[in-house]
């Protein structure tokens, strides 16, 4: 390369840097509060938290918020997706924003986490001959995320929705494999300078682990930008709705009472053990419950090991399909300890559409139709009872943990 060509290239790079800085919306410096467990195409744990992972989870969270407060049609995601695509793009629409993530690493293998229920299940299903170390979560050193506008235009408030949504998603909702069971949490180590007062206040709430106030502030800003003020009911919805911050219903953000975990391992252990049927049966208050009577299919599908578990029996298939858990377990670091939360993203109508086709097959060969088990009681009440049972099981596991203080 000639000297002239080198000078031209350097000038272009400087211009590109200036271009990026002028369109920079926020630069976030984040610290992992639980291990990262994102997988690559081979199912190995990836060393990188990529932009697509963050963008995808953010889009899902934004759709649930829109459906909770704005949507008129709760039969599917189409209305919410139209709103979110307006600023994050879609197949035929360019996003207003560009994410650039840089993972600080390499990460150290979190060897002791192989005893957690969610990790044990993955190791049990290892059919590719991968080493144990390839599949375990990683303790990353940090994550830097820069968010840019893709074009110069006036911001109608979407900056706040995107940056605020990223903060809540990474800190409380999680990214990567096992996010619904507490993995992949990142909290801001410092709040971005030069942003809106809304972002400064929200970031402080997130950084301090103030879950309910962070969600409350974000919801208010979301409704302001989107121009809506309704509050839809999960009982009328076929798509998940974001959790509420006030009220007594099963769809309200819930902290596990009297429980503070000393470290991320203990926090994840308590939360994940709360989802085990043996622990749910112990708190559900009806002696002699069979495994089939604890409707854990509501906590995500597929839920099966070899020939036991839940099967969707129809003319087309016996596969249960993939359904995300409606209950997100979230360890939140507060100072040097962890508070434990459950974030319920509930819906009823979609579960009504499939439960009559589900059957549970036990290890002894007994087959039970889920629809027959629920007949005579409202599915709504079954969901409410299960959400409450998971929270009470977590409290019970917390009381029995030697490394957890109260």
What descriptive keywords fit this protein?
406 residues, alpha+beta, Alpha-Beta Plaits, 2 domains, antiviral defense, CRISPR-assoc_prot_TM1795, RAMP_III_fam
What does this structure look like?
It is built from 13 helices and 14 strands. The N and C termini lie far apart (66 Å). Strands 2-5-1-6 form a 4-stranded antiparallel β-sheet. The chain has a 4-stranded antiparallel β-sheet with strand order 10-11-7-14, with helices on both faces. Strands 8-9-12-13 form a 4-stranded antiparallel β-sheet. The longest helix is centred in the last third of the chain and has 21 residues, at 379-399. 41% of the residues are buried. The chain has 2 domains: 24-232, Alpha-Beta Plaits (2-Layer Sandwich), CATH 3.30.70.1900; 233-406, no CATH class. 38% of the residues lie in helices and 18% in strands. By secondary structure, it is of the alpha+beta class.
Number of strands: 14
Radius of gyration, whole Å: 22 Å
Strand content: 15-25%
Structural class: alpha+beta
Summarize the main sheet: 4 strands, antiparallel
| Biggest sheet, spatial arrangement of strands | 2-5-1-6
**What share of residues is helical?**
25-40%
Reported CATH architecture of the largest domain: 2-Layer Sandwich
């Amino acid at each position: 390369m000639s000297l002239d060509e080198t000078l031209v290239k350097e000038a272009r790079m400087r211009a590109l840097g200036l271009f990026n800085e002028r369109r920079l919306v926020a630069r976030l410096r984040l610290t992992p509060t639980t291990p990262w467990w994102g997988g690559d195409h081979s199912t190995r744990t990836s060393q990188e938290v990529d932009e697509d992972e963050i963008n995808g989870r953010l889009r899902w969270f934004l759709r649930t918020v829109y459906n909770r407060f704005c949507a008129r049609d709760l039969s599917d995601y189409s209305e919410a997706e139209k709103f979110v695509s307006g600023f994050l793009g879609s197949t035929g629409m360019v996003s207003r924003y560009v994410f650039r993530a840089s993972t600080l690493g390499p990460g150290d293998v979190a060897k002791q986490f192989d005893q957690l229920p969610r990790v044990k299940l993955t190791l049990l299903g290892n059919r590719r001959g991968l080493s144990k170390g390839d599949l375990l979560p990683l303790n990353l050193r940090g994550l830097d995320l820069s968010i840019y506008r893709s074009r110069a235009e006036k911001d109608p408030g979407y900056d706040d929705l995107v940056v605020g949504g990223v903060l809540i998603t990474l800190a409380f909702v999680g990214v990567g494999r096992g996010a619904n069971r507490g993995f992949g949490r990142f909290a801001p180590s410092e709040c971005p300078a030069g942003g809106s007062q809304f972002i400064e206040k929200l970031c402080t709430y997130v950084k301090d682990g103030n879950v309910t106030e962070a969600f409350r502030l974000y919801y208010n800003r979301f409704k302001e930008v989107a121009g809506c003020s309704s509050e839809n009911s999960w009982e009328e919805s076929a798509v998940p709705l974001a959790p509420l911050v006030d009220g007594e219903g099963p769809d309200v953000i819930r902290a596990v009472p009297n429980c503070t975990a000393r470290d991320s391992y203990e926090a994840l252990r308590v939360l994940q053990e709360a989802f085990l049927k043996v622990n749910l049966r112990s708190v559900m208050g009806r002696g002699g419950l069979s495994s089939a009577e604890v409707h854990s299919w509501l906590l995500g599908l597929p839920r099966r090991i070899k020939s036991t578990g839940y099967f969707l029996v129809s003319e087309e298939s016996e596969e249960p399909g993939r359904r995300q858990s409606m209950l997100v377990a979230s360890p939140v670091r507060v100072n040097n300890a962890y508070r434990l939360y459950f974030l319920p993203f509930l819906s009823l109508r979609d579960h009504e559409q499939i439960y009559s086709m589900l059957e549970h097959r036990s290890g002894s060969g007994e087959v039970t139709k889920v629809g027959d088990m629920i007949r005579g009681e409202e599915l709504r009440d079954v969901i409410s009872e299960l959400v409450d049972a998971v929270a009470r099981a977590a409290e019970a596991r917390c009381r029995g943990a030697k490394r957890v203080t109260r």
